[in-house]
Write a structure and sequence with these properties.
CATH superfamily of the largest domain: GAF domain
Largest sheet: 5 strands, mixed
Distance between the termini: 92 Å
Number of strands: 5
CATH class of the largest domain: Alpha Beta
Number of domains: 2
Strand order of the largest sheet: 2-1-5-4-3
CATH architecture of the largest domain: 2-Layer Sandwich
Shape: elongated
């Protein structure tokens, strides 16, 4: 193996070049921080040597562009969350005006989807429903909440075809579920979206729980009277 470190001008063999290349790829700061070496390489551009200064600048510019895109994505996400929170708060305030379960049922079926940015909102109560006719509030078999949620309080993610048709009457892409306990009855508040990625694993559920707790308190009062 050629000892090119002690023979100026001597070209390293293939193994040496591969070793040097790997070392520089692993530690690019060795070149960037050596101003003399950087100047020498930049001055050698005319002889066909790549302008590493230009390459470094392009790389840094690329990183800046990526950071700006990420920052914009985060800002857009934050604005969307604030807008959704404002709509959810307005919807919950409107629930306070409900006079009975019939009016709550109407708001859940027709006003909640727009306010919460979904296509379907359903509320299932284990045991008999206190309503003769309803659109959003339905009875379900005992154990449905545990079957859907297990030991968890809520769930966000994809919606299986069978589950989707059972809960919403048609196929939905994803949904968010939250356990309800009102008037001694266990239930599930379900929000469904057509997009498969609207609700996903690990997503925050603060707004979902905020709405669920408001609905729970309203129903607790009315169910206690039935």
């Amino acid at each position: 193996m050629t000892d090119f470190t002690t023979q100026p001008g001597a070209a390293p063999d293939a193994m040496d070049r591969a070793m040097v290349r790997q070392m520089l790829m692993t530690n690019p700061d060795w070149v960037r921080e050596d101003t003399e070496l950087m100047s020498h390489l930049a001055a050698s551009t005319a002889n066909g040597v790549a302008d590493l200064g230009f390459m470094v600048r392009e790389r840094l510019l690329g990183e800046v562009r990526d950071l700006k895109r990420r920052q914009q994505t985060i800002a857009d996400h934050a604005r969307n969350n604030l807008a959704l929170l404002a709509r959810a708060q307005g919807f919950v305030l409107s629930l306070m005006e409900c006079a009975d379960l019939d009016e709550l049922d109407y708001k859940l079926a027709w006003e909640a989807p727009s306010a919460l940015g979904v296509e379907k909102v359903r509320l299932y109560l284990e045991g008999a429903t206190p309503m003769i006719v309803s659109e959003a509030i339905h009875a379900c078999s005992d154990g449905l909440a545990d079957e859907l949620l297990g030991d968890e309080n809520d769930f966000t993610g994809g919606c299986a075809t069978r589950t989707s048709r059972t809960l919403y009457g048609e196929e939905m892409g994803s949904h968010a579920l939250c356990r309800i306990n009102a008037g001694g009855r266990i239930g599930v508040l379900a929000l469904a979206a057509s997009e498969a990625d609207q609700f996903h694993t690990g997503q925050g559920t603060e707004i979902l729980n905020f709405v669920a707790r408001a609905v729970e308190r309203l129903m607790d009062r009315w169910l206690s009277e039935t």
